[in-house]
Write a structure and sequence with these properties.
Elements lengths: L2 E3 L2 H13 L4 E6 L5 H11 L4 E6 L19 H11 L3 E3 L3 H4 L20 H4 L3 H16 L3 E5 L3 H13 L5 E5 L21 H5 L1 H14 L4 H14 L3 E8 L15 E8 L2 E8 L1
The protein binds pantoate.
Length: 280
């Protein structure tokens, strides 16, 4: 049975008790409205540890002024049941007041330079500062040995890895594979914003990522691969923020340079902004 904890002292006491027994603690931070992708992270982290904590906290500091903070879907009962089924031991539910005791405006912020400045960082200024600010606080609250983040938020995972390395959190970070719907659409809490007519078109992103990979592997120059990706998305009715090929550290590769790649897309269909990526 999952235990729901809403007070920081109680969370610390529970985790201290586990550590006294020599148990290793895993952590999956979330913003709730959980789906199979989140539950797969709980199962993944469970393989590395003895106890799992998951948090649900819709973090105001990572939403821009015109983003969906107030309408972000909140589904506490389904989240609790799903986490319990996935093998989560403790659901940590901080409040905005306990997360930011001096208030959101006066909160100390964590900024990771470099990798947080490109792509999502350009489209959503301040977003990764909010993510790093809340993740640092959550790490200090939960004190996990291992924490899992989904690869769907590829850049977020890269930013968190740099945060952990730079601030020397003694936490192993693991990335969980993207979980997809049958037609290839990456699972996301934001998919439910898609209208009935938009939903089938949303799977175009996954197809375009595959086309970008194939074109790259066939020797097409990067600029052309990216232009073709943007055009294919625009043809399907998307407003494209980016469709790019990058090295795993998100820097720009030279044409003809060997090595692993990731194709990344962010694009809007109506009012819904979707991101996805494909490593190869
Ligand atoms: O990926 C998310 O859901 C959020 O960015 C996270 C890591 C829980 C921080 O609020």
């Amino acid at each position: 049975m999952i235990e729901t904890i809403t007070e920081l002292d109680a969370l610390r006491e529970r985790v201290r008790g586990w550590k006294r027994e020599g148990l290793r603690v895993g952590f999956v931070p979330t913003m709730g409205n959980l789906h199979a992708g989140h539950f797969s992270l709980v199962r993944l982290v469970r393989q590395h540890v003895d106890r799992v904590v998951s948090s649900v906290f819709v973090n105001p500091t990572q939403f821009g002024p015109n983003e969906d903070f107030t309408r972000y879907p909140r589904t506490p009962d389904a989240d609790t049941a799903g986490l319990s089924d996935a093998g989560c031991d403790v659901l940590w539910l901080p409040t905005v007041e306990s997360m930011y005791p001096f208030g959101v405006e006066l909160a100390s912020r964590v900024h990771v330079p470099g990798v947080s400045g490109v792509l999502e960082g350009e489209c959503r200024p301040g977003h990764f500062d909010g993510v790093c600010t809340v993740v640092s606080r959550l790490f200090n609250q939960v004190l996990p040995d291992v924490a899992a983040f989904g690869l769907k938020d590829y850049q977020q995972l890269a930013v968190i890895r740099q945060l952990v390395a730079d601030l020397q959190f003694p936490i192993e970070i693991i990335g969980g594979p993207i979980v997809r719907e049958a037609d290839g659409l990456a699972m996301s809490s934001r998919n439910q914003y898609l209208g009935a007519e938009e939903r089938p078109r949303a799977a175009t992103i996954h197809r375009v990522l595959g086309q970008m990979r194939d074109a790259h592997l066939a020797g097409t120059p990067r600029a052309q691969v990216e232009a073709q990706g943007r055009a294919a998305l625009a043809d399907a009715g998307f407003v494209v923020d980016y469709a790019v090929l990058r090295r795993p550290d998100l820097s720009e590769p030279a044409d003809g340079e060997p090595g692993p790649r990731v194709a990344l897309v962010a694009a809007r269909l109506g009012n819904t902004r979707l991101i996805d990526n494909l490593e190869f």
